[in-house]
Amino acid sequence: MRNSDYTEERFREMRLGMVRDQIKRRGVVDEGVLEAFTVIPRHRFVPDQYREQAYQDAPLPIGYGQTISQPFIVALMTESLHLGENETVLEVGTGSGYQAAILSRLCARVITIERISQLVENAKTTLQELEIKNVSVYHADGSVGWLAEAPYAAIMITAAAPQVPHALKKQLSEGGRMILPVGRVRYQELQLWKKEQGSFTYETIIPVVFVPLIGDQGWEEDPRGML
Ligand code: SAM
Fold this sequence. Notes:
Layout: H1 8-24, H2 31-39, E1 60-63, E2 66-68, H3 71-80, E3 88-92, H4 98-104, E4 109-114, H5 117-129, E5 135-139, E6 152-157, H6 166-170, E7 172-184, E8 187-196, E9 199-208
Parallel strand pairs: 3-4, 3-6, 4-5, 6-7
Antiparallel strand pairs: 1-2, 7-8, 8-9
Helix pairs in contact: 1-2
The protein binds S-adenosylmethionine.
């Protein structure tokens, strides 16, 4: 590991700047969400060579052709789920584990699924090092959800789906919320789905660009020609 010249205090100052300038200033107001971003050390979730860039207003590579999302997008998606402290949330697309760590401070339990085994191991290690105990990381195709513990009060998909996966809609509980990017390979819209009295409604939040959801109810293979 290359040791950064930055101290933990310096990283904390940068983190506070990120919360103020990128997240609060763009309209995220939920105090619990803002607190989670203030506490969780994003620099611990990125490869060593990117540590000093961890609080910039951008996604970063995490290896295997994947990315840790832009902080504001993580915050926007988190806030939109309005998590309750007794709820369980399913995340599809663990990546670095950063989003799962943020969610872990706002609900009872996080189940997160990742298809790339090396990323599963890296995320597990980081979460353990940070003593985050209410996140379970599984290596599987999350496009079909995680039936074992369904239904979920909230579901977040952090990879782009060509259409909303039916399996995931089925795993949403009554009153449940699901947020995901839906659309084409390099351009999607962020959609927030709600299940009320057995019926689904959705609203479009903003345009986004995510890496593809690859699996049974996603893309058959990486449409970018990677992995
Ligand atoms: N939430 C992540 C974080 O905080 O670092 C960022 C996720 S990254 C934008 C999308 C992730 O989804 C990638 O790690 C990718 O391997 C994963 N992914 C793609 N298709 C998947 C599938 N069917 N099941 C589980 N994970 C999948």
